[in-house]
Amino acid sequence: MTNQRQEVKMLQGLETILLKENFGEAIPEEYIVRENPRTIVHRHTYGGLSRFFGGLAESVLWGTVCLNQNCKWSDIWLPPRVHCPDCWEAMEWVPIDARGAKVYTHSTINLPGAGFMLTTPCPLISVEIRGVCTKFMSYLSKFGENEPYIGMPVKPVFQKDNPTYTILDISWVPKNSD
Amino acid sequence: MTDFRKFYPEKQSTELCLEAMKMAVQGTKVSAQEFHGMVNLCVYSQFADHFGDQLLAASKIHDYLGFDPIPNIEVKTGGATGGSAAKTAIELIASGSASVVPVVGWERMDEVNTRQGNAYIASAACKDFESPLGWSYTAYYALMMRRYLHEYHPQRETLAKIAQKNHHYARFSPFSQLPGDYSIEEILNAKVVSDPLTFPECCVMSTGAAVLIFCDEETAYRLTDHPVEVIGIGAGTHTLRTADRRDMPILLLPNETEDTYKGRSNDWPGFTSFLAARFAARQAYLMAGITDPVEELDLAETHDAFTVSDIQTYEDVGFRPYGRGAEFVESGDAYLGGRLPTNLSGGLIGSMHAVGATGLFQLAEIFWQVRGQWNEIHDDEELWKRFGKTKPTDFESLQVPDARRGMAISHAGTGSHVTCIILDGGK
C-alpha cells in the first residue's frame, strides 16, 4: 500500500490587511504592520450575584446586608456582595428603598471607550441612598439643562422590556419626572 | 529607557526592552556579558496582556535578553505595576535571596485604537458594575473630580496648571511623548473627554520600556561608584470599585495630628482621597524616618494620570492636609525652584504612560536627579537624535540643585493599589 502523503492547506478567511498608516502617521516602508482581527465571546457567570441582575428585569433593586450578630457592620451593600467582607458569612438579600436617593457626584461622558452601549452625551452618576454604605454608580437616562447636579433627587427606572442582564438595565431619572 | 510614543512600528516589545536594559547596564562598570553572570532573578512589569496580545510575553523578553535559565516572575497590579515590580525586587534583595534583580517594565499600547485602548484599561474596573458605564477611566476620575470641586472648592485653573506644568517639563525630556506649552485657557477650553476633564488634563497612552537594576550594597559598588539607596517602601490597596469605600477616620501621617482635621465633616476617603496612597506613604515615611515630606524630600514623581488624581495624591501623601492640595501648586512648591518640585519628568500627562513601565520611568528620573545626573541624560544631543527628536533651542535644565531624596508614587485604577518608594542619592 502506498504511503500517500497528506497536505495541510491554509483555511479561507485569514484576511491580509497591511497598514500604510496608523494614528495619523505614515508607517516607514521597511516595517510590516498587519491587522490581526478578533471576535471573541466570553461566557460570564454572575454566580451568587445572579439575583441582583435578575432583579433588575423585575424592577427590583437588591442589596445585601450582614446579619451576623458578631459582625459590627450592618449597613447595606449596593453593589451587593454575596459574602460579608468582614466576617465572610453569607449576607441577606434586601430590596433597596430608593426613596430619598440623590446624586453624590456626576460626570457627562462625551468620549467613551469601545463597547459603550449608551448614547452620548451620557450623564454618569454616583447615587447616595440612605442606609447604604456605598455610592452606586449608574447613569441618568433623562436629563435637562443643568442636570445632573450634586444633591439632585433621583429615582430608579428599569429596562423591563428586553432586559440585557447587565448593569445598564437600571438607570435613574429626576425624581419629579413622569 | 526608551523614548515613549503613541505608535512604535519600528520596534517590537522585545527590542524596546533590550534597548532599555542596555542603557541601564551601560550606566554601570560592567559589560553586558558580566552582568548576565551577576543576575539572580528578573522581575517583569507589564499591566495588560490584552494590549500586546501575547500571554507570557515576559518569557519571550527574558529569552530575548539572554537570561535563561535564571528565574523570572511577572508582577501585575494595574497602573501600579511598575512600583509593585520595583518593590518586589527590593524585597527580594532585602530578603537575601538575590543580590542583583533587574526590573523590566513595558507596555505595547499601539496595537489597538485609542477607544479600544480605553476599553482595555477599563477592563481593570469592575466588569459587572462599572466597566459598561463608560469603558473609560477618564469617566471614573471625572466623578472624583466633580466631587473634589464640590467639597473643597479649588480654583478650576489650579487643576489646569498641573497639566500646564507637566506638559511644559516634558519639553525638556528626550523620552517624552506629548510635550507642549499650553495656556490655561487652551487647557480649559480643549475638548472635554468626560466633564470636567479636558484632553490636556488626561494622561497619554504610550509604547515604550524602562529598566531599573536593584542590588545589595556590596554588589552596588561593583556596578557603580555612586549607587542610590532605597530608604523607604510602602504599598496599600483599596476596593477596586470606588463606590464601595466605607467611611472611616482619617489615617494620620507623621506630619498630622487629630487637630489637623478638627471640625471636618466630609467623608474619608470618599471620592476625593485614596486610602491606598496614604497607607503606602505612611509606611514609607516611617521606614525612611521622614516626618515632614515637603521639607525632607527634594523632589517627587506622582501618578498624574489626570490632573485631579494629582491634587488628590498631594493630600494623601501629606504635601498638604486634605482639602488644601491646591496650595501645593499655587504656592509654587510643586515647581522647579519650589520646596518640592513634582513631576519634572513631565509625568504621565506630558511624557508617558506605557503602564508597565510607568513606575520604573518615575524611579529612573528620580535616580538621575538624586545622582545629580539629570543634565547628563536629558541634555545629551545624541539621545535626542537617537529618538529622532530635536532638542529645544530654549532647553532648560530641570536638575534640582543638591537633590538627595526623591519619592515615586505608583498608582492603579481609582486607587486600588498604590506604592511609594523613596530613594536617597547620599551626599
From TrEMBL, chain A:
Cross-referenced Gene3D superfamilies: 6.10.30.10
Record-linked SUPFAM superfamilies: Nucleic acid-binding proteins (SSF50249)
InterPro entries, per the entry: NA-bd_OB-fold (IPR012340)
Protein name per Swiss-Prot or TrEMBL: DUF35 domain-containing protein
UniProtKB/TrEMBL annotation, chain B:
Domain (Thiolase C-terminal): residue spans on this chain: 267-376
Organism name: Candidatus Kaiserbacteria bacterium RIFCSPLOWO2_01_FULL_50_24
Protein name: Uncharacterized protein
Domain of life per record: Bacteria
InterPro entries recorded: Thiolase, Thiolase-like, Thiolase_C_2, Thiolase_N
Gene Ontology molecular function: any one: acyltransferase activity, transferring groups other than amino-acyl groups
CDD domains xref list: SCP-x_thiolase (cd00829)
Family matches, as SUPFAM superfamilies: Thiolase-like (SSF53901)
Residue ranges constituting the Thiolase N-terminal domain according to the UniProt record: 4-171
